[in-house]
């Protein structure tokens, strides 16, 4: 019986080593070199080709290699009766907190402007607001969002959170549901999107959302490219209503060469690296879930297919 890793065109030797370090008896195979698909009981996948999940007749569980699962839910050929799980990992949360903090501080401390000033040989100090007066609006308060909120509040930001259903997050001014979206956005000098991608959140970063933000607000999207309506962002930044954006995720990845984000002076792009799973910190939960799946036990971090995360 085996675990198959499906992560096309990537070196997954660190994953194989990390899984085997926790359980040397495991058979771990790397797609497409699967010796016997009939022996595969657990699949760990990212960017898998559609249809491939149907090749394993004895699958007991499909795991995302990351926190997001939209790649699995959007694949109509993903077997509907096999449980899906995702990774919930401190390494992923910490990495996301670092990225968000970096984006916020770079923006507030005017780093892009200083780079331009440096090129021009200019010495011009820019004003900086006290961070307690900066409202950070966090869309998505799940495992990762709550961790990020905690780091931001500890650092001194005023954090507002928006989630689908009402919840309490220590130190965060929470808003829930569509009805409260406008009130939430009005507080967000910096809007950070960490939402799961679902039918409800698809395209949520659009012109209407941007209009409800304070003037000169800044956007950080580290969730999924399809949350954002690209043309609406360009219009909002070009009109001066938004001051800029930091984007880690795109509708098409890699971002096509001709896309206007590449050359935009006020849009910074990174190649989907905000929070990348580290096999060494995430492998144990995979091994544990593999054993649970094989023994028919309750799985950790199970995905609710209807809810979409
Ligand atoms: C990254 O995008 C993830 O979902 O883990």
Describe this structure in words.
- The structure is a single chain.
- With 309 residues, the protein is an alpha/beta fold.
- It folds into 2 domains: 2-89 and 277-294, NAD(P)-binding Rossmann-like Domain (Rossmann fold); 90-269, Rossmann fold, CATH 3.40.50.
- Helices cover 30% and strands 17% of the residues.
- It has 9 helices and 12 strands.
- It has helices spanning 13-22, 70-73, 90-108, 111-120, 143-155, 181-186, 207-211, 230-238, 279-294, and strands spanning 2-6, 27-30, 40-45, 61-64, 84-85, 135-139, 158-163, 173-176, 190-193, 217-221, 242-247, 267-269.
- The strands form 2 sheets. Strands 8-7-6-9-10-11-12 form a 7-stranded parallel β-sheet. Strands 2-1-3-4-5 form a 5-stranded parallel β-sheet, with helices on one face.
- α7 (207-211) links the parallel β9 and β10 (217-221).
- The radius of gyration is 21 Å and the shape is elongated.
- Bound molecules: glyoxylic acid.
- Residues 66-68, 92, 275, 277 line the site of glyoxylic acid.
